[in-house]
Design goal:
By secondary structure, the protein is an alpha/beta fold. It is built from 7 helices and 7 strands, in the order βαβαβαβαβαβααβ. The protein has a 7-stranded parallel beta sheet with strand order 3-2-1-4-5-6-7, with helices on both faces. Belongs to the short-chain dehydrogenases/reductases (SDR) family.
């Protein structure tokens, strides 16, 4: 059993979907959770209520993690209210579904700013809490987990903005690992296949894509759920993953290993 009692975790974009599932799973394992959101406070508060029902602390904080000043303020609030930070789940993302030839410079910049640069802001502003000199903190190593998607590896219709930014995110994690690994921080990526969420249902030909994923699955016909991704995030947040560093773990039921 994975035990995260005493841990403090930050989950960005935790108001719904995969972010909410990760926040709740971490709380189920015993962690107190900072629920970050940028637009829907009511949904974020619903996430917090579910965490509190599990007997854990939940701190709801509005912050645009693509903005450096917001992230600094977020870390200050975490330090003042909870005193520590052991796990960061970088989940907040944007991009929209559009042809690259129709994408404006602003849309491209927004995808890179939110999907990639936000992770850099989080580790830069939170490093004084994440670093583990001399065994500081309840966790021997702190954990940073970034969420990616199959679009980082495969071309999908109208997914170019998101897919290219997720590929950049995975590269950023590998390079950050060189710098942060010796300072007591593990950084890894969870790459999920097509998960059955409200956002996925907005994809062009969503039903066909979901059924195609089901047909290629090597673990049965059940569609991927946010909880499946959250289970892997929970593992990477724990001390049981201390020797997994700079890796990209794929959660897709094996559907991507064959055509």
């Amino acid at each position: 059993m994975i035990d995260l009692h005493g841990y403090t975790a930050l989950v960005t974009g935790a108001s719904r979907g995969i972010g909410r599932a990760c926040a709740i799973r971490l709380a189920e394992a015993g962690a107190d959770v900072v629920v970050n959101y940028v637009s829907s406070r009511s949904n974020a508060e619903e996430t917090a209520e579910q965490i509190q029902a599990l007997g854990r602390k939940a701190l709801v904080v509005k912050a645009d993690v693509s903005e450096e000043d917001d992230v600094r303020s977020l870390m200050e609030i975490i330090e003042e209210e909870l005193g520590s930070l052991d796990v960061v789940v970088s989940n907040a993302a944007t991009g929209g579904f559009k042809q690259l030839l129709e994408a404006s410079p602003k849309a491209f910049d927004n995808a890179m700013r939110i999907n990639v640069r936000s992770l850099l802001h989080l580790v830069q502003a939170g490093m004084h809490l994440l670093e583990r000199p001399g065994g500081k903190g309840i966790a021997p190593r702190s954990k940073v987990i970034a969420l990616s998607s199959a679009g980082s590896k495969f071309a999908l219709p109208k997914y170019g903005l998101i897919g290219s930014s997720k590929a950049a995110l995975e590269s950023l994690v590998r390079h950050l690992t060189l710098e942060l690994g010796p300072r007591g921080v593990n950084l890894n990526v969870v790459l999920s296949g097509l998960v059955d969420t409200d956002s996925a249902r907005l994809l062009p030909n969503a039903e066909r894509l979901l059924e195609g994923r089901r047909a290629r699955s090597l673990t049965g016909e059940k569609l991927l759920a946010p909880s499946d991704v959250a289970d892997t995030v929970m593992f990477l947040a724990s001390a049981r993953s201390d020797q997994i560093q700079g890796a990209t773990l794929t959660v897709d039921g094996g559907s991507s290993i064959r055509v």
